[in-house]
Amino acid sequence: MLVVMKAQATPEEIQAVCEHIEHLGFRAHPMPGAQRTAIGITGNKGEVDRGNLEELSGVAEVIRVSKPYKLASRDVKEEDTIIRFAGTDATIGGRNLAVVAGPCSIESREQAFTIAEHVAAAGAQFFRGGAYKPRTSPYAFQGLGLEALKIMAEIRDRFGLRIVTEAIDNASLELVAEWADVIQIGARNMQNFSLLKHAGHMRKPVLLKRGLSATLDEFLMAAEYIMSEGNYEVILCERGVRTFADHSRNTLDLSIVPAVQKLSHLPILVDPSHATGKRDKVLPMARAAIAAGADGLLIEVHHQPDKALSDGPQSIYPEQFVRMMDEIGQIAPIVHRKLPRGLHIDTTPTETHAAHVK
Amino acid sequence: MLVVMKAQATPEEIQAVCEHIEHLGFRAHPMPGAQRTAIGITGNKGEVDRGNLEELSGVAEVIRVSKPYKLASRDVKEEDTIIRFAGTDATIGGRNLAVVAGPCSIESREQAFTIAEHVAAAGAQFFRGGAYKPRTSPYAFQGLGLEALKIMAEIRDRFGLRIVTEAIDNASLELVAEWADVIQIGARNMQNFSLLKHAGHMRKPVLLKRGLSATLDEFLMAAEYIMSEGNYEVILCERGVRTFADHSRNTLDLSIVPAVQKLSHLPILVDPSHATGKRDKVLPMARAAIAAGADGLLIEVHHQPDKALSDGPQSIYPEQFVRMMDEIGQIAPIVHRKLPRGLHIDTTPTETHAAHVK
Amino acid sequence: MLVVMKAQATPEEIQAVCEHIEHLGFRAHPMPGAQRTAIGITGNKGEVDRGNLEELSGVAEVIRVSKPYKLASRDVKEEDTIIRFAGTDATIGGRNLAVVAGPCSIESREQAFTIAEHVAAAGAQFFRGGAYKPRTSPYAFQGLGLEALKIMAEIRDRFGLRIVTEAIDNASLELVAEWADVIQIGARNMQNFSLLKHAGHMRKPVLLKRGLSATLDEFLMAAEYIMSEGNYEVILCERGVRTFADHSRNTLDLSIVPAVQKLSHLPILVDPSHATGKRDKVLPMARAAIAAGADGLLIEVHHQPDKALSDGPQSIYPEQFVRMMDEIGQIAPIVHRKLPRGLHIDTTPTETHAAHVK
Amino acid sequence: MLVVMKAQATPEEIQAVCEHIEHLGFRAHPMPGAQRTAIGITGNKGEVDRGNLEELSGVAEVIRVSKPYKLASRDVKEEDTIIRFAGTDATIGGRNLAVVAGPCSIESREQAFTIAEHVAAAGAQFFRGGAYKPRTSPYAFQGLGLEALKIMAEIRDRFGLRIVTEAIDNASLELVAEWADVIQIGARNMQNFSLLKHAGHMRKPVLLKRGLSATLDEFLMAAEYIMSEGNYEVILCERGVRTFADHSRNTLDLSIVPAVQKLSHLPILVDPSHATGKRDKVLPMARAAIAAGADGLLIEVHHQPDKALSDGPQSIYPEQFVRMMDEIGQIAPIVHRKLPRGLHIDTTPTETHAAHVK
After folding, report:
1. Do A255 and D241 touch (CB under 8 A)?
2. ipTM of this model?
3. How far is it, in rounded angstroms, from Cα B203 to Cα B345?
């Protein structure tokens, strides 16, 4: 159920409607829009009596929502959600393309700094690196944990990059929310509803990856889990689905980009690195994602992929990343986007790292 | 890496080899077999020096394991794993078929007792019922939680049924391990590695459902996660995979039964209720599962499926369950199995519940 | 559109209704049932005026069919279709299980006779062998063609087995219809609509295999193509679908057996050999298919699978086939079926072939 | 097996090697390249003796090909295949993007001319329209057949567009080869090997659509079937594969574009209309295809899609097609392509048709 407020409704009227809803035993989710505010009603204790609500001051209309997701739907909020980061001009959603780049795993301070320097210089606004790794094998490298989070916090300070990293359970979620700027929920946890709910209590944006066999409805319902707990800053991410096809690790399903944008106001990024699993497919699919209208990219970059502790074969070289940024920068205006200009810090490669750039 | 002990090796020799392995910084997993003991070595800090191990007293052979899973593999343990429950003759694995039956969710004490009485009378040894439900929608019924666990503990006392119920996070895992007999990990959590590791620290058997798009290797690797933490009592469960086919909710992949049995010593059950999602497909698929060689079944039973709070359309009626037990009891000897005889308690339907049996 | 005649309608009345339908420019398909006759109306030139039809003598009811398939539907014909073969008691559909066995390809007269003798002795009523092979590679063995058809005709004479073999185009279709008893249309041709239409003009039953990614509706629509041309003797066959799972060649989807039986009167067989692609999975899946309610099996048998020119790894040995027949014979009564007793000919292995039976 | 000739080998030497191969009972496929000629050897009668071949005059090297396809492989022909059309500058493959546009089915002369005029004016070089339609239902519109072919021949004369249309069996193949410029083989016939072989005997290029569940290897093997009969002008076309995803009709698998280009010299087009099945997804996926590096597009265009006899919902309006051409024209230089300039004929909408352009 959704209460649409009149354009001229006052903050007091909105507040009164929310209190009325809560008083009835439901939960109110005010969603301010450019024109007017809509208030989503959630709670699974039964039916709301529409009559009373329509009579409250400032209410324009009460509508029953047919989609199983509400807060993620354009029915509730028509305008695109744009996620902003205090103290920077980095955004996710809106006209500016968001580029999140970095290694699969943080392996050492030196490795992380080398790669961060490259991607910052090339114009990325976000740095990604795994601290907690959900590995298929219990015997594989599981990540450096808190140590990696601290390294990435230093990277934020040094290069001005916002930090995106994955949480794999409630314990790591608390730490990621404390140290990073965006909490990533991985594909294998897309229906870990307990984790989604906890992420809904955090005050940091959540980047939610599509599960390997998730339908569009399930994907938006997973976002709804986070939003229904009060955290409305959810960023969706397509990373390939599992099919019979064997020429790429997963099958990148770019048609979900316009499909999401039709139904939901949430931004959607694309991760061509995990989808293809092969370095030589990353650039073509990165270009295709931007051309399809995605709000940005997640890209794995490594200066020594052959020595990477995880996912080396799909990491691109820094010089390929530069080329990719150039190419998507050219495609951007065709889809009414732009690549925000480089950061206002000195990103000239230092002597130590310059050798890595060919 | 796997150390195979001589048939006549003494417990002291086995102990000494384990200590040597731990001293090297690895973890030793002694797996006693009917003929001799094998010791699995896990830990991801590098290579073990095979030379030293082969020279230890009582060691027959040291072999490198090529499969990514070790403890779940028949290479480590050739004999089928049979899981026993103290104080009962209920087993999972081995000659006796294991039948786990009950409602999708525990909705009330009366509902649970009614169904338990029916399934016990028909010869089930295990009762299943959801206390914590991983629902696609945040607005759907999420289960009664601890209250449901307590109801099921009463059912164990009253009907002698062992209790199987799902844990969805670490908090519910602790409670399920305390109150139930088997901890279920659902399909959507099959690669929730954090949860798998915690389940590996519990001292109760774990029933692990195959993920919706999990390969056989990933399925066994998920079992390996639990086993690598020291809990070797893992029960696998096929419950359908996601495909393009739309005549059943998921596609039940029965060929994984002989495939698992070839590679692994772990028992495997089949859940035709979740796989098909349709009442009229449950009996045919239950018969097919037993004919294919499965170690048992998970079946949703409800006396009033139209009023069920979840999964009503796939729950069979108690009288259908009786018929199913009769049919699989006839198939059992053809695959060298048997249905253990009814429990030694009075299962005559009481007045209160008799009306439900037509 | 479907015209249901009264139970007491005379042949003349049925004939008159058909002529009326044809006169209107449509095609009439009389489908006699145990109780009464239904007449399907097909033709894509627009709407039939229901009024006139309902007034004709002997008409009970005129109903609009909502399913895209009509002639394949139980709406048109409620009773199961049983396909009979003149001069034998072999049937497909009904109480008797139909077992079709033989090599993937006919390689030589000796090979074919050796295998035919084995499968006849074990109780198969149908012999299968490829004369025209649809191979993925143009450089692979493509079959012996007409020579193979002639060898199989000899096998029919010698062992009393009915012959099932595949047609891959119109030319081979004519020859198969001339020499064999059942025309097989392979999975890759399930939507070769031109071939389906031609098969609809033949006066021999058609065994139609499900396409690798065909939905249930598409499968029944392919049968409808054959039936809409006047050939109502269609036998469906599940042979596995393509999924991400890699432990078997395809994923055998047994739940389509009860799904087909609910919607259609046509018999459905199961081919576990092509579905699994692995010898050790064939018997478990054959048992499962019969337990699920299938009308019979297609099984690849070869006495020297290592020397087979195609599909050796999935062919079972003659002694495994004997065991399979024994096992499904035991399961049959549980699903109200039976395995018809051996043929009334001398199937004692002759000297020449006896050596192959261990 | 592949014979690589020296760069300076004479035509006579090449001819002599081919004759030697044919004399041995194999088939020789000379493939002239920019640098030198390679000769593919096909035929399934056994092993070629490499020794003799290496000693022939002009031979540089004899190499064994490990891939199951040979003629379609870059091993045999390193340079991209560019297909040219006599009397025009239209090409498929190479720097120029190829755009094939038109209605799903030819419904009438007026409908076809109206659409042809629009797409020619917008810069398409190829016109597509169905004459023979492979429809899932036997009761659906099956196409106008020869009448449609004649209408399209008129369109070629009037607008200078090359004609692409589908053949569904040998009879229609002969007619399509006679009347059209490119023979299309549909997704459902990708493994209709009999049809592929016949197409291999035609002297017109063949546009081969990927089957709904075809792997990359199967796709290239289907092309190999055509090529092995002597027709080397094969154009591949990705049109979506069947997956569990339900937000688009099929899942467009763009990663096959770089995957094909790595292994094969054949051009590959993308059909976003059939893949998505929805008008509002066509432009985003068309842009994405070009950005991924495809050699061109197949697009369904209809001026009155609501009245179309087939596939209306996925046909874009002429004005959307103009916008699409503009957008891909802007993306083209980023991937080192260009959209060839408009045709040298008068494409000013005539009075009759002008009204359709808004």
Report:
1. no
2. 0.86
3. 28
